[in-house]
């Protein structure tokens, strides 16, 4: 049996930030989950639909693993990523890191993990691996999935080898924090302004504030988009609220990140952004409830109302990000703790 010592196996709400929290705490850097999410410029939006999809998908964060890359770059962490098509080499990579005393992040398809009760393929799931024995791997996942959990080595191998949307080639990674790393507080403004710039200037209409506006138009047609609205609409709303998003399609996490930042930096723009994202979080939960109601009742007016809420959200979030984008231009004296 191999187990990394001194693991703080706290689960959290979102998978990638949960795994990052485990790896960072092992390096002596204990950040809240909202702070990890915000410093990784994690907030985004995508309206995703195509002919080969059963139903549209609303995403509220950047692509899988972009958050990890952003966080490592901002904090100047040594991020070592290993990928391979060989299952044998993939396991050797993991064992070498564990034997060296490092917990390992893994990107895999959660469908194959023994402890997952919701059997839906998701190739962008991330867990922290901190030990194994002859039969099982010992992981940290979200609170929703049980926090410190175990799965068979066979199931873990299947999850890592899976192919399909958002999967990686047996991706594993470790983080090392150098002694001269910048303070997290010094990276708040760059992380926020980078997130705001991407949100305000999306390359296509499916992303950022333009994507939310597009969703507001198209959600009104969702009853005609499916043969089983009682299944598909509540499922879409459930993914917004419960599927590791922290509620409100990650807006609760970003709201709490901004609230934490207001305790560290004195900025009217930051306070404005926090106020507007608090409003946005409430509106996202309202939109999800209306989508659920539409699926259960078949009432198209619920989707009309959801569309109106989403259009309001596009404006609210655009205004919030415009305020936050101005952080980079504030006088240094306004940004002292």
Automatic annotation (TrEMBL):
Residue span(s) of domain DUF4872: 155-324
Tree of life domain: Bacteria
Pfam family, one: DUF4872
Lineage of producing organism: Bacteria, Bacillati, Actinomycetota, Actinomycetes, Kitasatosporales
Protein name: BtrH N-terminal domain-containing protein
Domain Butirosin biosynthesis protein H N-terminal span(s) in chain numbering: 14-142
């Amino acid at each position: 049996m191999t187990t990394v010592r001194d693991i703080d196996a706290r689960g959290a709400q979102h998978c990638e930030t949960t795994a990052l929290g485990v790896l960072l705490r092992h390096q002596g850097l204990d950040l809240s989950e909202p702070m990890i999410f915000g410093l990784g410029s994690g907030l985004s939006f995508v309206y995703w639909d195509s002919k080969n999809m059963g139903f549209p998908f609303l995403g509220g964060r950047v692509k899988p693993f972009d958050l990890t890359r952003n966080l490592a770059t901002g904090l100047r962490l040594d991020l070592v990523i290993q990928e391979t098509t060989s299952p044998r080499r993939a396991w050797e990579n993991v064992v070498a890191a564990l034997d060296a005393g490092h917990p390992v992040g893994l990107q895999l398809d959660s469908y194959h993990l023994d402890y997952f009760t919701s059997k839906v393929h998701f190739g962008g799931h991330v867990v922290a691996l901190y030990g194994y024995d002859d039969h099982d791997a010992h992981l940290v996942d979200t609170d929703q999935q049980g926090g410190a959990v175990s799965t068979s080595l066979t199931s873990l191998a299947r999850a890592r080898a899976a192919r399909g949307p958002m999967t990686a080639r047996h991706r594993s990674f470790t983080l090392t924090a150098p002694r001269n790393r910048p303070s997290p507080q010094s990276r708040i403004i760059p992380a926020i302004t980078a997130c705001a710039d991407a949100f305000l200037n999306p390359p296509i209409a499916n992303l950022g504030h333009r994507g939310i506006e597009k969703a507001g138009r198209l959600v009104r047609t969702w009853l005609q988009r499916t043969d089983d609205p009682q299944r598909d609409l509540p499922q879409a709303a459930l993914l917004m609220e419960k599927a590791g998003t922290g509620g409100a399609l990650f807006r609760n996490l970003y709201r709490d990140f901004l609230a934490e930042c207001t305790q560290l930096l004195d900025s009217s723009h930051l306070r404005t952004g926090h106020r507007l994202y608090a409003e946005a979080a409430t509106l996202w939960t309202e939109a999800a409830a209306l989508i659920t109601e539409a699926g259960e009742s078949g009432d198209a007016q619920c989707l009309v109302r959801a569309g109106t809420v989403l259009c309001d959200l596009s404006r609210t979030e655009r205004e919030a990000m415009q305020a936050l984008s101005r952080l980079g231009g504030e006088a240094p004296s306004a940004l002292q703790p």
